[in-house]
Design a protein that fits this description.
Elements (H helix, E strand, L loop, with lengths): L9 H4 L3 H17 L5 E6 L6 E4 L9 H4 L10 H9 L10 E4 L1 H12 L2 E7 L3 H11 L12 E5 L3 H8 L9 E5 L8 H14 L3 E7 L10 E6 L12 E7 L3 H24 L1
Parallel strand pairs: 1-4, 1-6, 4-5, 6-7
Antiparallel strand pairs: 2-3, 7-9, 8-9
Length: 273
């Protein structure tokens, strides 16, 4: 696998074309894993903030902004349902939009399904840690949410998760999202190491990357997209991918097939519109 993407401040990139693809697949994966289960164990290596406020100008305008007007027709997909529910009225061009980060999307999905959530999330940025402290201490989270079991770890996600992951007899689905910033030369190596350990410990793993900068290991299933196929524009990044791994081959093949079908369905709908 090659790299790198350079510095990455997600406040700048929230809602961009890469976010649309990775969050769409993450939500579809979580939704699929929760069929027949009322509990989800979730972990994330680089959590980012609970949510972001989108306002013009910004990269999001060439990402989720290009298809925002289509949200009412995309309600069959968990990702777009969550965006709609957090933004109940379609904003005017000049109005701010709430864009949930990946963990917030998992929280919303679990809450709306009535699912018990156990989440351990990592980030080493002080401002991100402060934003989670504020979010989790709110007296009035959205009424639909049952206060989830979230543990925020203010430390490096790679080293933290490598120590945290271990086999378990718990049969609940376990989902790890690896979403590194790719600002350090070792990020790719550490992500590969983390994916292998998580897979060996019985976790389902999704690992996000930009296709113009990296390629997924040949042994992994990968779902890649050229942003132009979705009518989106990623600037110097032409496309994105999510590599999928798991210890149970039958479950993994079912999940990958589901994600492929949903991705093709989304592309058809966007082209039709």
């Amino acid at each position: 696998m090659t790299q790198l993407m350079g510095g990455y401040d997600h406040r700048v990139h929230a809602g961009n074309a890469g976010d649309v693809w990775k969050h769409f697949l993450l939500m579809e994966a979580a939704d699929w894993l929760l069929k027949g289960s009322n509990r989800l164990i979730y972990a994330e290596s680089h959590a980012g903030r609970p949510h972001y406020l989108l306002k013009a100008p910004g990269e999001w305008e060439e990402g989720i902004g290009r298809i925002w007007h289509l949200l009412p027709s995309l309600q069959s997909f968990a990702y777009f349902r969550i965006l709609s529910e957090l933004n109940p009225s379609l904003p005017q061009a000049s109005e701010e939009r709430i864009y949930p980060g990946s963990v917030r999307q998992i929280i919303e999905l679990a809450g709306r399904r009535g699912t018990e959530l156990q989440a351990d999330i990592w980030d080493s940025h002080p401002d991100v840690a402060a934003s989670w402290q504020d979010f989790l201490s709110q007296e009035s989270l959205p009424s639909i949410l049952v206060r989830p079991g979230i543990c925020f770890h203010f430390s490096d996600g790679f080293s933290g998760l490598l120590s945290f992951l271990r086999p378990s007899s718990d049969s609940s689905p376990r989902l790890l999202f690896i979403d590194p910033p790719y600002v350090e030369a070792q990020d790719v190596h550490m992500a590969e190491k983390l994916m292998q350990k998580a897979r060996d410990a019985g976790w389902t793993v999704l690992w996000w990357y930009m296709t113009s900068e990296m390629t997924a290991p040949a042994a992994l299933d990968a779902l890649e997209i050229d942003f132009a196929q979705m009518g989106l524009y990623g600037g110097r990044w032409r496309g994105a991918g999510v590599a999928v791994a798991g210890s149970k081959s039958s479950q993994l093949s079912g999940l990958v097939h589901h994600l492929q079908q949903k991705g093709e369905e989304l592309i058809r709908m966007l082209k039709w519109h």
